[in-house]
Amino acid sequence: QVQLVESGGGLVQAGGSLRLSCAASGRTFSSYAMGWFRQAPGKEREFVARINWSGGSTYYTDSVKGRFTISRDNAKNTVYLQMNSLKPEDTAVYYCAAGNAFSSWKGHYDYWGQGTQVTVSS
Question: Are 81 and 69 within 8 A, CB to CB?
Fold first, then answer.
C-alpha cells in the first residue's frame, strides 16, 4: 500500500514556474514507477510525465517537453515535477500516481494522490 500526497500547486502568471512534490508513504516507494497526470475542467485525465523506479528513464507528453522535468529522490520517498514556462493551457489539477509498469496509461497506476491545483493566468 502506498499513500501519495501532492503539494506545490498554486496560481502563477504565464511564463512562470512551479515545482510540484509528491510525498509517498511506505518502504516500497523505490520499486514503483511514478507518473504525473493532470485533469482540466470538463476534460479527461491526461498523462504528463513518468519516471522509472531508479530515475534513469523519463518520458513526457509532447506538449510539456522542454518545459517540464520529472525527477525522484528515493531516499526521501518523493517525486517532483518542475514546471517552467507555464502556459494558461497547463491549468489543471495535477495528480501523482504509482504503479508497477513504466507506462503513460492511467490504468496501469494503482495508487493516486488527491491532486493539487495549478492555475496559470494570462
Answer: yes
CA distance 30 to 50: 14
**CA geometry: angle at 61 spanning 56 and 64, to 5°?**
95
d(CA 23, CA 20): 10
Cell numbers for 2, please give them.
502506498
Q: Which three cell numbers stand for residue 38?
A: 493532470
Residue 16 to residue 53: CA distance in whole angstroms: 29
**The three cell numbers locating residue 60:** 513526457
- Within 10 Å of residue 44's Cβ, how many Cβ atoms? 8
Residue 41 CB contacts under 8 Å (≥ 6 apart), including other chains: none
pLDDT computed for residue 1 by the predictor: 83
Q: How many residues does the chain have?
A: 122
For the chain, residues with pLDDT lower than 50 are: none
Cell 508497477 sits at which residue?
Answer: 100
Q: From CA 65, how far away is CA 38, in angstroms rounded?
A: 15
Residue pair 43/54 in contact (Cβ under 8 Å)? The answer is: no
